[in-house]
Design a protein that fits this description.
This is Membrane protein. Pfam families: DUF498. It is a single chain. The N and C termini lie far apart (about 40 Å). This protein has one domain: Hypothetical Protein Mth938, Chain: A. It is about 20% helix and about 30% strand. It has a six-stranded mixed sheet with strand order 1-6-5-9-7-8, sandwiched between helices. A three-stranded antiparallel sheet has the order 2-3-4, with helices on one face. The chain has three helices and nine strands. It is of the alpha+beta class.
């Protein structure tokens, strides 16, 4: 009997986020429970180790695509929190401007920038 294959959650394309809340997101006629990372290469399930203390390693996929991203929107949950210094420094070194905000504001801003075909990426922490 073959073992179960667990694949990383990934939507291979750019899509606006249609809804958020209840611990997840809806986009491209699909839903995802948990946080997501929206990159030029697609939308990925994303689980930072500690949403309150994001680290550069939480953004390895983003850094791999840094040349295609100018702006990173970070949906920090229900409340705005400052990005940790180490993460801000890593983003600056990669030439990426980061803008932390509440997840709701980040989703709305992401959808506008995506519609304008801007070089935008987003990291959204799920909210209930």
């Amino acid at each position: 009997m073959a073992g179960m294959i667990i694949r990383e959650a990934h939507f291979p394309g750019r899509a606006p986020v249609d809804a958020y809340g209840d611990g997840g997101f809806r986009f491209a006629d699909m839903s995802h429970r948990g946080s997501i990372l929206c990159l030029p290469s697609g939308i990925y399930g994303w689980q930072p180790a500690d949403a309150q203390a994001l680290q550069p390693s939480d953004f390895d996929k983003l850094f791999a695509e840094a040349g295609a991203v100018e702006i990173l929107l970070v949906g920090m949950g229900k409340e705005l929190r400052r990005l940790p210094e180490a993460l801000r420094a890593a983003l600056k070194a990669a030439g990426i401007s980061a803008d932390p905000m509440s997840t709701g504001a980040a989703v709305r801003t992401y959808n506008v920038l995506l519609a304008e075909d801007r070089a935008v990426a987003a990291a959204f922490i799920a909210v209930d």
